[in-house]
Each structure stands twice: as structure tokens, then as C-alpha cells.
Amino acid sequence: MTHSSANPTTNHLQSTVTLSNGVAMPWLGLGVFKVAEGPEAAEAVKEALRIGYRSIDTAAIYGNEASVGQGLREGMAAYGIKREDIFVTSKVWNADLGYASTLAAYETSLGKLGLDYLDLYLIHWPVQGKYVDAWRALEKIYQEGRVKAIGVSNFQIHHLEDVMRTGQTIPMVNQVELHPLLSQQPLHDFCKANGIQLEAWSPLMQGQLLDNSTLQAIAAKHNKSIAQVILRWDIQRGIVTIPKSTKANRILENGTIFDFELTDEDMSLIDGMNQNLRVGPDPDNFDF
């Protein structure tokens, strides 16, 4: 598996990392958490495709899979993009974890999205006593060739060890909250050692870092925004990232991170900001 970060000279949004099973996954995608079902979600997806994004991340609980599917169809038709050139991710929600219910949830997501397959399907949260059975269901879908890759979300090391011990397939991706105040280095090291691609949700800490003085100084030096610096930090660490936005200018800005490179000093300064601080739930203490 490729662990190296995206080369800045690739200078385009379609550059990919190769997952452990050989599937190519874009380094950067559009997240649609809290994007409203209807025109807002459909237009955000369509605009992302127009700009050059080829990865879209949604989930059953977001309630916008139908609009994401609409945006995908309209964008593919408008810009001449083939389905095989787009990487679509969704996730099974906690209430549906379990073997049969996870299989059913996958069909429901496909139906809402209007797709024949997903590129990546994830267990959304490690609900105790349920995620092992859900993983068996994901393995079945994968073995049948109905999904390109399978993985998990919000799994800590001990959760990953559970599915690695009981399952037949090591998760290809682990999508977790990750930003400069929660750098997740021990988890990153574990994932790298086991061929699991780490992926960052809430990479911009829901906007809470946009006036940080350390990041402001680095951004000014590179003539970039703080958001661009954070996303570039992810990529250079070898972490896939999926910033969420519905505004065309922000979607474009977030995608313009392949034309510069942070220095080792920049990287160390941002690494040093870690406080193990979460804005989302703690996976071990989440009231499911």
C-alpha cells in the first residue's frame, strides 16, 4: 500500500492514494455532513464535480443521500464524467448495525443514491456489541463484489483490533475526527503499520481554527488561507481529507492545495498544536 502523501506537483484534485486492496481513493473529497437534503446538497455535489472533485462522502444519518445522488447524476451528465471516475462513500448508521440490518441498510443507501455500487462503505460508529456483526456484513458485500472497498469510522485502536481479530478482512479505511488540535498520531501510526488508510473528518475543526495565530503566520507565508494550510498538512501526513462546504468559492478554495508544499518547520509547528481535543463525540463514551 502507498503511504506517501500526495506529491504537490500533481497539482490536481484527482490525485489518489492506493488502498490496501489496490483501489485508488482521491486524497481530497467533499463532505456533506449537515448539508440539507434538497437543492443545497445536490448543488454542492454538482459544483464540486465541476471544479474537479471526484470524491463525495455522505452517510445514511445525514439524510441527504437522495440529493447527493441527484447531484452526482446531474454533474456526470453536465461535465461528461463516468461513474467509474467518481469515488462515493456512505456509512451504515448505529441503529442498523447487526448482520442482516447492515445488509439491508446498504441496499437502502444504494437505492437513495441511485447507484449500483459504492466505492467505500463504512461502519459509522463502533457501537459496542454490534460492530463485529456489522463488519461481517460488510465483508459479505465486499466478497460479492458489490462494493469496491470497506472500512470503519471513529474506530480507536482497540476497536480496530477487535475487527482484525474476528474478521477475515482488515478495514481499508478508518475515517476519524482529525485536525491540528486532535492530530491522532498514535492511531495514524497503528493504521499505517496495518495498511489502513486514515481519513480526516472535521479537518477544519468546524471553523474553530480560522483565527489561530500559528496557522495565520504559516498561511501568510505561503499566500494561502488557514483552511488550505490545514488541508495541505493532512495530505502531507498521508491522510485523506474531506472538508465540508456548500459555498462554491469555499469548495474551490479547499481544492486548491496541490500547488504548494509546507516546510518541515511548518509541519512541526502544526503537529505541536495537538491537545487531543475533540469537537465531536468520544467514540468510547458516545451515547448511542
List keywords for this structure.
globular; TIM Barrel; 10 helices; 8-stranded parallel sheet; alpha/beta; 288 residues
Please provide a written account of the structure:
There is one protein chain. This protein has one domain (8-271): TIM Barrel (Alpha-Beta Barrel), CATH 3.20.20. The chain has helices at residues 39-51, 65-79, 99-113, 131-143, 157-166, 185-193, 213-222, 226-236, 248-255, 264-271; strands at 16-18, 24-26, 30-31, 55-57, 87-92, 120-123, 150-153, 173-177, 197-201, 240-241. The mean pLDDT is 94. It has 288 residues and is α/β, with parallel strands linked by helices. The strands form 2 sheets. It has an 8-stranded parallel β-sheet with strand order 3-4-5-6-7-8-9-10. Helix 2 (65-79) packs across helix 3. It has 10 helices and 10 strands.
Number of helices: 10
What name is given to the CATH topology? TIM Barrel
Strand order across the biggest sheet? 3-4-5-6-7-8-9-10
What proportion of the residues is helical, as a percent range? 25-40%
| Head-to-tail CA distance between termini | 34 Å
Shape: globular
> What profile does the largest beta sheet have?
8 strands, parallel
Which CATH architecture? Alpha-Beta Barrel
Low-confidence stretches: none
Topology, number of strands: 10
Strand residues, percent: 5-15%
The structural class is alpha/beta
| Assembly category | single chain
Provide a quick synopsis of the model.
This protein is an alpha/beta fold. The protein contains ten helices and ten strands. It is globular, with a radius of gyration of 18 Å.
